[in-house]
Amino acid sequence: MAISFGAYLSGSIGLIISLIGFSIHSVAQGIYDPIMRREINSLSDGPVRASTMAVATMLGNILFAIIAPIYGWSVDVYGHSKTMLLIAIIISIISSFLVFAIKHTLETVSNN
Predict the structure, then answer these.
(1) 49 and 40 Cβ atoms separated by less than 8 Å
(2) Domain extents for the chain?
């Protein structure tokens, strides 16, 4: 009885965590989309604007199509905890690099 309750609770907690994750993703997407569209609108002309927005959306879909199977394979091979740790490490490295690159670019632009 305790084992089945533990399995049920584990599944329920996983469901709750998944729902929280999907909610956070939806909020982030809701924040990102208007900002991206405003920037594209301010930087491009009419005919180019639609193509630019389509390319931006397509790149997001392509990245998801590449990353989702790799994530699934990694969960199958290494387990969920190790996969999430690996993702956290990768995101930390990429974020650090991007912050450095953006800072360097802004310093270069401000000096010219």
Answers:
(1) yes
(2) 79-112
Q: Is pLDDT at 30 greater than 90 in this prediction?
A: no
What does each C-alpha distance from 60 to 18, 32, 36, 65, 79 come to in angstroms? 21, 12, 12, 9, 26
Q: How far apart are CA 92 and CA 97, in angstroms?
A: 9
Q: What's the whole-number mean pLDDT along residues 29-44?
A: 82
Exposure string over 21-36, b if 16+ CB within 10 A, otherwise e: eeeeeeeeeeeeeeee
Token reading at 28: 């982030």
Q: What is the pLDDT of residues 67-102, one digit of tens each?
A: 889 988 988 898 877 888 888 888 889 888 988 888
Q: How far is residue 83's CA from residue 81's CA, in Å, rounded to a whole number?
A: 5
